Automatic annotation (TrEMBL):
InterPro entries reported in the protein's UniProt record: aa-tRNA-synth_I_CS, Glu/Gln-tRNA-synth, Glu/Gln-tRNA-synth_Ib_cat-dom, GluQ/Sye, Rossmann-like_a/b/a_fold
Statement: the UniProt record of this protein carries the keyword DNA-binding: no
Protein name in UniProt: tRNA glutamyl-Q(34) synthetase GluQRS
Family label: Belongs to the class-I aminoacyl-tRNA synthetase family.
SUPFAM superfamilies membership: Nucleotidylyl transferase
Keyword Membrane listed: no
UniProt organism field: Chelatococcus reniformis
Gene name per UniProt: gltX
Protein keywords: Aminoacyl-tRNA synthetase, ATP-binding, Ligase, Metal-binding, Nucleotide-binding, Protein biosynthesis, Zinc
Record's GO cellular component terms: cytosol
Length: 302
């Protein structure tokens, strides 16, 4: 049975969310996203929820989660409590996976990254998904059921992949994404998730993936407007497909520009680009950050 994914509580006003992953310290790119969420919430007369996206149990650290709460408070941003932490909700994601599996839309994949690279290499071509990762060649899709059972019974580690063609055949007809600009004017654009191939919805280590958790949580939290970086624009096609498959409400999306460093490279926590706490230690104030990023109009506490 699909868990009830209707929003918790009545949806009486626009709901936005800022959803960082605590796998490093927040940098200026996060500050931009958090402040833009605050600005659009104000324009829409809505509220921004904070969500801690910590499903990556190998890379996320409680200390980074603590630090991000501190950094956001320093920036002058306050959020309703309690804050949702994805690692508290693995049972919910597992139930959604079960439902998709019951409908024949998932299959276990036992391939390691090296095996995928080798299989793709043997084909003599290297098709990639929009994030630049090798497109899964479908090795495990056609495994005989007895072989699947044997490997599962042996406890072989596996991911769960979406049967993209079957899922699209069911519901990608006329798939669109609602978009809105900074003045909250709405439009709609066509999206096609097929370029992602059979995406992983259940990881080896936890019963979800980013795509599944973000889609389920946006629905459960009644999110009406998703404001996030342009690096997630292409992935929205997957989220739209999952919303259709699961019968979930469709938020409106705004993908903002990415803040780049002096060399024009996207800031990433992995290279520790300008953590906010480092700026703070250098004597830069939250007001300076807000002004530099173009949010001089947002008062602290807005
Ligand atoms: N947790 C993601 C990140 O830190 C953002 C996900 C989203 O906004 O949909 O990049």
């Amino acid at each position: 049975m699909l868990p009830d994914l209707a929003p918790i509580g009545p949806v009486s006003r626009p709901i936005l969310r800022f959803a960082p992953s605590p796998n490093g310290y927040l940098h200026l790119g996060h500050a931009y996203s958090a402040l833009l969420n605050a600005r659009l919430a104000r324009r829409l007369g809505g509220v921004v929820l904070l969500r801690i996206e910590d499903i990556d149990i190998g890379r996320c650290r409680p200390a980074y989660a603590e630090a991000l709460l501190e950094d956001l408070a320093w920036l002058g941003l306050a959020y309703p409590q309690p804050v949702r932490r994805q690692s508290d909700h693995f049972a919910t994601y597992a139930a959604v996976l079960d439902e998709l599996r019951r409908r024949g839309l998932l299959y276990p994949c036992f391939c390691s990254r090296a095996e995928i690279a080798a299989a793709v290499g043997r084909r003599g071509e290297t098709p990639r998904d929009p994030d630049g990762a090798l497109l899964y060649p479908g090795t495990c899709r056609a495994l005989a059921p007895a072989e699947v059972e044997r490997r599962l019974a042996a406890g072989t580690l596996h991911t769960l992949r979406l049967r993209m063609d079957e899922a699209c055949a069911l519901c990608s007809e006329g798939l669109t994404m609602r978009v809105c600009d900074c003045d909250c004017r709405e439009g709609s654009v066509a999206v096609d998730p097929r370029c992602w191939g059979d995406v992983v919805l259940g990881r080896r280590d936890v019963p979800t993936s980013y795509h599944l958790a973000v889609t389920v949580d946006d629905a459960l939290q009644g999110v009406t407007h998703v404001v996030r970086g342009a690096d997630l624009l292409a992935a929205t096609a997957i989220h739209r497909l999952l919303q259709r498959l699961l019968g979930l409400a469709e938020p409106c999306y705004h993908h903002h520009r990415l803040i780049t460093d002096d060399d024009g490279r996207k800031l990433a926590k992995s290279v520790e680009s300008l953590p906010l706490r480092q700026l703070r230690a250098r004597g830069i104030t939250a007001g300076d950050v807000r002004r530099d990023l173009g949010f001089g109009d947002l008062e602290a506490g807005a």
